[in-house]
Amino acid sequence: MSVREFPYPHRHPQPLGALRLELADEFTEGRLGGRWTPYCRDLTREAAHLIDAFPADRGKIDRLVYAERDWDALETNEVFTRHGRIKVGLLPPSRGTGLVLVRVTGAGIVALGIAWPTGLASRQG
Question: Which residues contact 63 (CB under 8 A, 6 or more apart)?
C-alpha cells in the first residue's frame, strides 16, 4: 500500500534537504538512539520530515516530545505527515535541551540527540 501524496494543512510541501539522522545499531533504554541534525528551528516542518523519512526498517514514529526552548513556537499539539497526524508534546524543563524523544513502533521510546548546525546552536535559559 502506497502512502498518499497530498498536502495537509500546516505542512510544508518539501523538506529542506535529505534527512540528517544517524541511528545506533540497536535502541537501548537509557542511551541515545541516534543523532538528528535539523535544518532550522521550525518544528512543524522538521518533525514532519523526521517522521516521513525515518527508516522504515527501524519502525514508524507515532509520537514525539521535544524541549520547548529548542524550537520556534509550535502552534498546535500535532504535526501533519504523510502518515497522518502525529501527536507532539513537551519535555519537562528539567530534561534540558538538545533532545527529542520519539515513540517508534516495535522499539519503544527512542532518545535522539539534536546536533544543531553552526548558527543554530542550542538556546540556553
Answer: 86, 87, 88, 89, 102, 103
